[in-house]
Structures are given as C-alpha cells and as structure tokens.
Design goal:
Layout: H1 14-19, E1 22-23, E2 30-31, H2 36-45, H3 55-76, H4 83-95, E3 99-102, E4 108-111, H5 117-133, E5 140-143, E6 152-155, H6 167-185
Antiparallel strand pairs: 1-2, 3-4, 5-6
Helix pairs in contact: 3-4, 3-5, 4-5
Length: 191
C-alpha cells in the first residue's frame, strides 16, 4: 500500500516555496519532505530534477530550508540576519555547480551536474534565497498573518500588502473563521 503524503504548496519563488515544505510551524507542523524520495519529487516539480537522494542529502536540504526560513523571517521583520543561517546558505550556494541555460522558449532552466544533483539543486535554492533576502528582486519579504503558520513569503503584489503565504490555505482558513464567528454572533447582535 502506498503512503499518502501531504501535497506540496508551490509558489512562484523557489526559496520561499522550499521553506513551505514545512508548514504550520507554530501549530501542528506538516512535513512535506519526510523521506528522500519526497525531496526528489519536490525538486522535480520545481524544475530541479535529480535522480536520487540520500538521507544525508535530505538532512542537508532540511538544514538549508530552516536556514532560509530563519534568514527570511529576520529580513521580513528587519532584524539582524542570523550568522548560523547565513553560513549554511552561503555554503550551499558555493557548493552547487548548476548552470543556467536558456530554453528555445526564452526561459531560464537549471542544468544540474550529473554527479551531485541534490547539492547542485540546493545551490540553486540557496542562490535564490540570497537574491530575495539581499533585495535584488522586485517585491518584499513578509510573514504570513496566520498565527499558526508565520511562513516567510515573497510579496510581489502591486501594493506589497499581501497578508497570507497562500490565499487557498491560510487566507481561506482565516476568512472561514471570521465568517463562522460572525454567524455565531447572529444577525441581530450588537458589536
């Protein structure tokens, strides 16, 4: 029997999507890459396909994920960036040997090395994190308004005032809770 895993929450920004492989960090956390083959799956849907992953590589990936989350959270609230997180992000970026290639459709893709695919993929993710934390991309880092989530996300909305990491999950949950609270109050109750 095949074990069912939680679906991936994919966004348009690689680094913050990667941090979303652990969600509800302040509630009942959901680990979306609990096994090496799930990291292989996530990398494939993120355009960084690799053939295999070891438990050691999964540990490296989770360490990078948590370091990106810590640094992005600090940047979002304008706190100093944690030195230990910077060390991990910089090391993973320097160890990757991926090459950017241009497709016939005019899009960038990553070509990973044949020997160290996972490490190369982690290097791409780390480089993406460096770009958003350093402010090199148009947008801003923010934290999800959900008290159980508090995920760092990259807001590229026109007004830069987005509140939720994902409207379909956290935003929907909060709207539903507000609606149910208003329903309990009843139509004739005073506020």
């Amino acid at each position: 029997m095949r074990v069912a895993f939680p679906e991936f929450r994919l966004g348009s920004v690689l680094a913050t999507s990667f941090t979303g492989t652990l969600s509800e960090r302040h509630g009942d956390s959901v680990e979306r890459i609990p096994a090496p083959h799930r990291l292989v799956d996530w990398l494939a849907v993120s355009g960084l396909a690799v053939d295999s992953c070891t438990t050691v590589q999964l540990d490296l990936a989770r360490e990078l994920r948590e370091s990106i989350h810590a640094a992005a959270t600090a940047a979002a609230v304008q706190d100093p960036l944690p030195a230990s997180a910077l060390h991990v992000i910089n090391d993973r970026s320097a160890q990757g040997r991926a090459a950017a290639i241009l497709t016939p459709e005019g899009e960038r893709q990553w070509r990973l090395g044949p020997v160290s695919g996972v490490e190369d993929a982690l290097g791409v993710i780390a480089a993406d994190a460096i770009g958003i934390i350093a402010g090199e991309r148009d947008g801003r880092l923010a934290l999800c308004a959900s008290p159980t989530c508090r995920a760092a996300f990259f807001d590229t909305s026109q007004s830069r005032t987005r509140k939720w990491c994902d409207m379909n999950t956290c935003g929907n949950r909060q709207k539903k809770a507000r609606f149910q609270a208003n329903q309990r109050k009843g139509p004739g109750s005073a506020e």
